[in-house]
Amino acid sequence: MKEFEEAVARAAEKAGLPLETARSAVTVPKERDRGDLSLPCFPFAKALGQPPPAIAARVAKAFQPDEWLLSAEAQGPFVNFRVNRPAFTTRTLADVGPEYGRSGEGVGKTIVIDYGSPNLAKPLLFHHLRSAVIGQALSNLFRWRGYRVIGLNYLGDVGTALGKLMVGIEEHGEPKTIDDFKRTYVEGSKACAADPAKMERARAWAKRLEEDDKEALRHWENAREMSLRAFREVYDRLGVKHDVVDGERMYVARAHKLVAQLLSQKKAEESDGGVVIPTGGKTPFLVRKSDGTTLYGTRDIVAAVDRHDRYAFDRMLYVVDVAQEQHFQQLFASLRNIGYAWADRCEHVAFGQVLVGGSRAKTREGESVELIDVLREGEKRALAVVEEKNAALKNKEAVTKAVGTAAVIFCDLGFPIRKNIHFDWNEILSFDGRTGPYLQYVHASACSILRKGGGTGGAGFDAARLSHDLEWDLVRRLAEFPAAVARATHECEPSHLSGLLYELAREFRSYHTAGARDSSLRVLVDDAAARAARLKLTDAVRATLAVGLRLLGIEPLEEM
Fold it and tell me: In this structure, what DSSP letter does residue 463 have?
């Protein structure tokens, strides 16, 4: 599409508009019947001293057709252009392939993405899903755009929660499995809630761990080893990979030094027995409690400094739910107040909660929904759906695993991530609608057509044979893919990509359905030239779906 966007910018330049501004202004109209490409004229109004509609009329009047563009029409403040369809189709389908949407824009730049962040001694729970899945999708997207990505899992491995676990160990013995750890933590939490003396013991255990007490460290090491093993099983099923696994405990000593340093520099102050950093807002940032222990916020400051020292990042993203918004506002303000100019490169990628039946379960009451159980349930339900549709399917076990996982992942990524998502198995496993299995099904349908047609149609297809409006809709949607990938990356919003994939799949299904009603619109028609062109278009749809699904962390399937 670049050649056509450049042609629009050059048409604007001929009318006296600045070329670079025109290049950045070219867009695709939301209402497709208005044109193929559009030039909004608002950006030129101030410099030219004219209202946008007058500028649009000026551009349309100066326009001359060329090999890329056929017409230009002023509509209010917009100039809407019609492209040379065969030329546009040829160029677009030539661009589609295994590397579609890949870019070198990020070469030489580093992105640190903190996603996952589970606590030790507990299994991964349903509410851990979003951070892991969104973070992995962002890692995939940034890598696709050429960035060096450091995917980081930052474990919650110190603090009062670990102290409660150790109170549970005192009373119930050393856990042997991750399930034992979960029960021990729940029992310890209940005991501490019921008995203030036991709560004080939990705080004492937390302080002993910060001070490297041998017994506390032994319990900690056992919990860490068991937890990481359990986390890995779930992450592998989801296709989630971290480049680095750090933990809060590695920053405890540095956190204490930081507090002393900030006090000496008068960048922190004592308050009610603790130590706070003023943030310019109503609530200062607490960095040391009255009992002398640090907090996760203190360690977040030290961790951010350490990551900047280690990786010299251009951006650091914290993929954490929206409930932590105030924490990150205070964290970033504290970093700025301490004197770190790079604090402005730190961003909170906030997401809503996963709600089941309208609520989120809480571990400390023992009412948790484990993520591994959700994935297993997804496979079980997917098997029933797949058997109903294709009982003779080969590799049924692998397919149902992929379908169940796709349902769970796309439920997270199919809509804007700040919204809460309402998890319903019947909806997310549907083969008809905005779901992961639906996209996999359309991809498999395209693969089936290509197998029956004996290939992709080859390189020498005649683009003029793709003359139906449904075919043109597909071509235009395919051309939007690189921009959707770029936008999803820049805005840290995977739904820009998932939304385009859904529209592409929906339009391909409409095309396929039209062929079932009208034999002249079938891909596998007798007319060799039309057949070759339609196979080429079908393969472009398949390839684009495959690239996009993989970027989201979903496996494209060839048979379902």
Answer: G
Cα 284 to Cα 13, 327, 517, distances in angstroms: 53, 11, 67
Angle at 119 (CA atoms; ends 115, 123), nearest 5 degrees: 100
The Cα-based distances of 431 to 356, 428, 434, 506, 560 in angstroms read: 21, 9, 9, 12, 11
Using DSSP's 3-state secondary structure scheme, residue 75 falls into strand
Whether residue 364 is predicted with pLDDT greater than 80 in this model: the reply is no
Rounded distance between C-alpha atoms, residue 194 and residue 335, angstroms: 38
Do both 76 and 123 map to the same domain? no
Residue 98 lies in a domain: no
Domain boundary among 331, 346, 365: 365
Judge if 250 and 215 occupy the same domain: yes
Distance CA(291)–CA(287), nearest Å, equals 12
Please answer whether residues 24 and 36 qualify as being in contact, where contact means their C-beta atoms are separated by less than 8 angstroms: no
Cβ atoms of 45 and 52 closer than 8 Å: yes
Residues 314 and 399 reside in one and the same domain: no
Same domain, 448 and 500: yes
Tens digit of each residue's pLDDT (9 = 90 or more) over 313-348: 999 999 999 999 999 999 999 999 999 999 999 999
Residue 150 domain-assigned?
Answer: yes
Name the nearest CA neighbour of 85 among 1, 6, 23. Answer: 1
Q: What is the CATH number of the domain that holds 538?
A: 1.10.730.10
Task: Identify the CA nearest to 301 among candidates 283, 318, 319.
Answer: 318
What is the structure's pLDDT at 359?
66
Q: Which of 485, 403, 470, 387 is nearest to 436 (CA)?
A: 403
C-alpha–C-alpha distance, residues 57 and 50, integer Å: 11
Is there a single domain that holds both residue 33 and residue 172?
A: no
Q: Hey, what's the torsion of the CAs at 230, 231, 233, 237, to 10 degrees?
A: 150
- Total domains, the chain: 3
Which residues constitute the domain of residue 514? Answer: 372-416+425-552
Return the DSSP state at 460. Answer: -
What would the two tokens of residue 364 be?
Answer: 């400390």
Residue type, 344: D
- The whole-angstrom separation of Cα 404 and Cα 430 is 11
CATH label of the domain that carries residue 311:
3.40.50.620
Taking only the tens place, the pLDDT of each residue in 181-235 is 889 999 999 999 999 999 999 999 998 998 899 999 999 999 999 999 999 999 9
Residue 522 is assigned to a structural domain of this protein: yes
**In whole angstroms, what is the distance from residue 205 CA to residue 217 CA?**
10
Q: Are residues 463 and 524 in the same domain?
A: yes
Q: Would 99 be classed as within a structural domain?
A: no
pLDDT tens-digit series, residues 273-314 = 999 999 888 889 999 999 888 889 999 999 999 999 999 999
Kindly report the average pLDDT of the chain as a whole number: 93
Whole-angstrom Cα distance, residue 239 to residue 554? 8
